[in-house]
Amino acid sequence: MKIIKHEIPEKLITEDGIRTDGRKPHELRPTKLEVGILKRADGSAYIEQGKNKIMVAVYGPRELHPRHLAIPDRALLRCFYRMASFSVQERKSPAPSRREIELSKVIREALEPAIFLERFPKTAIDVFIEVLQADGGTRCASITTAALALADAGIPMRDLVSAVAVGKVDGHIVLDINDLEDKYGEGDMPTAIMPRKKEVTLIQLDGRWTPEEFKQGFELAIKGCEQIYQLQREALKRRYLEIREQAAKEMEERAENP
Ligand code: ADP
Questions:
Q1: 127 near 78, Cβ under 8 Å?
Q2: Residues 233, 225 contacting (CB under 8 angstroms)
Q3: Which of 24, 74, 156, 237 has the most CB atoms around it within 10 Å of its CB?
Q4: Among the atoms of ligand 1, which is closest to the Cα of residue 142?
Q5: CATH of domain 31-256
Q6: Measured between alpha carbons, how far is 106 from 179 in angstroms, rounded to an integer?
Q7: Is there a contact between 219 and 226 (Cβ–Cβ < 8 Å)?
Q8: How confident is the model over 35-45, as pLDDT tens digits?
Q9: If you measure from the C-alpha of residue 42 to the centroid of ligand 1, how many angstroms do you get, rounded to a whole number?
Q10: Is 137's C-beta closer than 6 angstroms to any atom of ligand 1?
Q11: What is the DSSP letter of 98?
C-alpha cells in the first residue's frame, strides 16, 4: 500500500525571501498559455502555471436547453469548473463537490462583466473548465484561460479578464501562491481585473490582513494581473498568426488545384 506523505515545510519563505518553489515574493510561476487547442469546441485555451494544468472549452452562443432557463434580453453564461479525480494527490471524489459548484459561480461572476451578453438574447454560452492538475490558484488560472477561450470563440467582449491570487505567507505578501502556500500560509486574495477598463471583477479575501497588508496585496495583485494580461495578449497573437498562416496555405493549395 502506498502511503501518501504530506511534506509540511518548516518555513514557507527563507530569510533571503526565497519561496518553497524557488521564487522571489513578487514572481509569477512559469506560465504558458495556448489558444485554440480543441478543434470541436467553438473556442478553447489551455494553461500551465507552475504545476497547474487546466483546459477550457467554450460553446456558444447556442440554443439553450432546458428552454425555461432562457433570459429574454441576454445570453445565459454557464461555467462548469471540474477537478479531475487525478488532479490532486489524494484522489478527489468524481461527484461535483460544493467547492466546484461555488468556484463555478465565482468564475462566472468574474467573467460576466466582460461579455456583451445582451447581444445574444435567449441563448447559452457554456464554459467548461477541466482542471487536470491542481496546485493552488486554480480559480484564477481558470478565469485567465476562460477569457482566452471566449475570445477564441469570437464572442464579443469589452475586455479580457486577467486573474491571479496573492497571499500572506510567513508575514510576507507574495504573488501567485501555490498549494503549499495556500494550505499553510496566513491568507489569500484571489483577484481578477478587466485590464484595459481597469475594473476589478473578482476579489476574495481569506485570513487576517491589516489595512496596510491589504493595500500592499491589492497593488501586487493588480501588477500580477497586468503581467498575466501581457501573456494572454501574446497567446492570442500567436493564435491569430497561426490562423492567418493556415488560411494563406489553404488559398495557395486551392490556387494550385482549382
Ligand atoms: P484555488 O485552486 O483557486 O486556490 P482552493 O483555495 O479551494 O482554490 O484550493 C487550493 C488548492 O487546494 C487547489 O488548487 C488544489 O491544489 C487543492 N485542493 C482543492 N481541492 C482539493 C481536494 N478535494 N483534494 C486535494 N486537494 C485539493
A1: yes
A2: no
A3: 74
A4: 3
A5: 3.30.230.70
A6: 19
A7: no
A8: 999 999 999 99
A9: 28
A10: yes
A11: H
